[in-house]
Amino acid sequence: MSEQWEPRIVAFFCTWCTYTAADLAGISRMTYAPNGRIIRVMCSGRMDPQFVLKALADGADGVLIGGCHPGDCHYQAGNYKALRRYTLLKRVLTEMGIEPERVRLEWISASEGDRVQKVMNEMAEQIRKLGPLQLERPLPQPLPETERGAVPLPVAGRGLRG
């Protein structure tokens, strides 16, 4: 007997709205596709596109990003930053030969548990139609912090000069 393939979806949810809505869906006993693994982030604006690429490189077939509705962000403009990054990410994915439909951005407020249910079911069905992610070549790995221009912190008691 052959096992039917099921998509793996990584969902990055804003702690203030979408994650709270997912919690409400659970408390309300709303059922939705069990394909998603939710990761709570403080704000959708903190979603680095490298998180999405890493999830896809590590075996996810799709990524869902959930944040507060525009104008309702706990950090004022985080969701606008998320939208800009998402738009660029979709272009990059297309250039890499990955269907842009594998990544989705949704605005879901804390009171919209039913919307989490609907979006998760739609996303699972959409990825099911696309099939498993077939990467032709490995995705680029993020650079270590020291190569990204981060300045190493001084060791306690030694000052900046060492």
List keywords for this structure.
globular; 162 residues; Rossmann fold; 4-stranded parallel sheet; 14% strand; single chain
Structure explained in plain terms:
The protein has 162 residues and is an alpha/beta fold. It has one domain: 3-Layer(aba) Sandwich (Rossmann fold), CATH 3.40.50. It is built from 4 helices and 4 strands. It has helices at residues 18-27, 49-57, 78-95, 113-130; strands at residues 9-14, 36-41, 62-67, 103-107. Strands 2-1-3-4 form a 4-stranded parallel beta sheet, with helices on both faces. Helix 1 crosses helix 4 (113-130). The longest helix is centred in the middle third of the chain and has 18 residues, at 78-95. The termini are far apart. The model is unreliable at 158-162 (pLDDT under 50).
